Amino acid sequence: MKPSRPIAAVLLLLALGATAARAAPDRFEAGVFAELNRLRSNPAAYADFLRDYRPRFEGRRLRGAEEGEIDILTREGVVAVDEAIRELRREKPLPELAWSDLLARAAADHVAVQSRSGAVGHYTRGQGPGERMRARGGGPYVNEVITYGHHTPEGVVDQLLIDDGVPDRGHRFSLLRPTHRFVGVACGRHPVHRTMCVALMSQTADGSPPPPPKRTP
Fold first, then answer.
1. Are strands 61-62 and 98-99 parallel, antiparallel or unpaired?
2. Disulfide-capable partner of 139 in 50, 84, 208, 210 (CB 3.0 to 4.6 Å)?
3. What total of structural domains would you count in the chain?
4. Do β-strands 194-202 and 143-148 pair in parallel, antiparallel, or remain unpaired?
5. Range(s) of the domain holding residue 36
């Protein structure tokens, strides 16, 4: 039997505001956090969820899954979905991620800027993820992933896993990196793509260098 997962009941446009950097996750961000750990706890089983994407394709166009969600013109179409399914089926369970307030604040800083400017990408005002973490008093040893245009936690994680148009599948690799132990998520409005969601991950809660491995006698 195909596993089921809860679908977010409230659209991101109604649930989120990105005017202030916040640490405690709201309902949508908590949903993304839970979905990330659902993936990591059993990647092979998660592959079945991606099958839901296949009927939504019209050539390379992915139809929006929710009311108000925009259609997305992909580069690879269903080919990238099928590849993600094959890769996930080979993955073993990974440690679940713990929530980090500091990572969430740095992610929210980025959402706050892009929600006003309409910019996309990891850099705004010359600052990337590491600089944003330093400004918050943390370290630069972080990994950031961003999605635009998805209104459900499931859609956010699915887009990162499929990683359409990214040759090295870097977003998928980031979600499945075994050394990641902490994550902070911030989501909000975007003037061009309607919604955006930023996840910052690290081996430590504050982005500081991980402790050296213990020596065996």
1. unpaired
2. 208
3. 1
4. antiparallel
5. 27-202
CB of 21 closer than 8 Å to CB of 109: yes
Cα(76)–Cα(5) distance, integer angstroms: 26
pLDDT in tens, 106-163: 999 999 999 999 999 999 778 899 999 999 999 999 999 999 988 899 989 999 999 9
Q: Which amino acid is at 186?
A: A
In a domain, 216, yes or no: no
Residue 110 in contact with residue 123, Cβ under 8 Å?
Answer: no
Domain CATH number, residue 154:
3.40.33.10
- Of 133, 124, 107, the closest CA to residue 187 belongs to 107
Give a yes or no: residue 210 inside a domain.
Answer: no
The answer to whether position 156 is within a domain reads yes
SS (H, E, C) the chain: CCCCCCCCCCCHHHHCCCCCCCCCCCHHHHHHHHHHHHHHHCHHHHHHHHHHHHHHEECCEECCCCCCCCCEECCCCHHHHHHHHHHHHHCCCCCCCEECHHHHHHHHHHHHHHHHHCCCCCCECCECHHHHHHHCCCCCCCEEEEEECCCCHHHHHHHHHHCCCCCCCHHHHHHCCCCCCEEEEEEEEECCCEEEEEEEEECCCCCCCCCCCCCCC
Question: Which pLDDT belongs to residue 20?
Answer: 42
For residue 7, tell me if it sits in a domain.
no
